[in-house]
Amino acid sequence: MTDSHASETVFETLSGAEATDSRTEARNGLRHIASLSMTKIADGLINPKLVLSWLLTALGAPAYLVGALVPIREAGALLPQVFLAGWVARMRHRKWAWVIGSAGQGIAAALIVLAALTLTGAAAGWAIAGLLALLAVSRAMASVSYKEVLGKTVRKTRRGGVTGFAASAASIGVLAFAVLLISGLAQSQGVVIGAIGLAALLWLAAAMLFSTLEELASDPDRQGGGVDWAILRDNPQLRRFILVRGLLVSTALAPPYLVLLGGGEGGQLGQLGALVLASAAASLVSSWIWGRMADRSSRRVLMLSGAVGAVAMLAALALDLAGLAGAVWAMPAVLFVLMIAYHGVRQGRSTYLVDMAPEDRRAAWSAVANTVIGSILLAVGALGGAAALLGPEVGLLLFAGLAALAPVAALGLDEVER
Q1: Domains in the chain and their CATH numbers?
Q2: What are the phi and psi torsion angles at 17 (to 5°)?
Q3: In the predicted model, is pLDDT for residue 45 greater than 80?
Q4: Alpha carbon distances (Å) from 360 to 87, 92, 155, 355, 357
Q5: Residue (of 83, 69, 89, 152) closest to 370 by Cα position
Q6: What is the pLDDT of residues 188-197, one digit of tens each?
């Protein structure tokens, strides 16, 4: 079997495609899988909820800087996209925006390592928070271009399989790291800094590989990129999709409340290590399946993941009422189910937007949607934080209600895969 036929066979197996009539698509699909796997492992190694929070604490940074890490990361990765979309639309080969974004994340991670080795206290906190902002903007650059490149290089009905398999493959590496954190074998500052250094190398390697993608030239939009807020006015399906996705941000914001509900025994690193372990295990067993389901109906994936997320959060509240929230098995089990829902949301929303948006407007649609979602995420996060002042149970109840509303709102979405 020749290398080209072998790549076609591997791609068909991993993506679930019945037959691939393009060797170029097969090569591109495998490059997508490898590049995404590396960046997703890097995400797990530098997770602000786990690694950076623990590192800033170990360096003696103020608590308010530790608390700002997740909002910086999440909002910074979404809000700039509306400004970056015009630049992407003017490019003939949009893969270079992703390459620059991945390389930027690698450079930012490397500088975080340098800051951790040379600074302490508030100086270290401010430096790492600022570098995380740079990393988040670089991620926004990669995100706003990726759906455009994926749509150009991999055909419909196999895109979810490509991204889903990459997420599952990457979760193996993150699982190993999480086990080390929980076991206590990696509870040292040097090991954590080394993990961030490895993340930097993975992002840089992914950028190099993605640069070899065989992408046909696009017609540049010389008018500035087509980010027009009229997109929202003229496309009720996009508005409905943003509503559904906005309700589903609750699955991303809820995990820390589960840790609080469990009583926080075992130390901060152990708690967050359990969160990463649950997320990685859930990704391993579900992302590829969610991706294949999304290729058939991403609308149904959004509905099902919202329902599963709501059930998981209500189960946590029921365990708390029964006095079992502190049991060693309780919150990890709930976290696992919730993370399955979260990864379903990720696969469903990505596939739905790529398949719904016009071929030459994917970057603009993605930028507008992500900018609105970034604002919603900040608002819902603040609302959840305010509710949690009355106890983590109140915050979880709010998030469960939002997740339960998502399947109802999704009833009005079209089946874009048909």
Answers
A1: 22-214+231-410 (1.20.1250.20)
A2: -70, 135
A3: yes
A4: 14, 12, 15, 12, 8
A5: 83
A6: 678 889 999 9
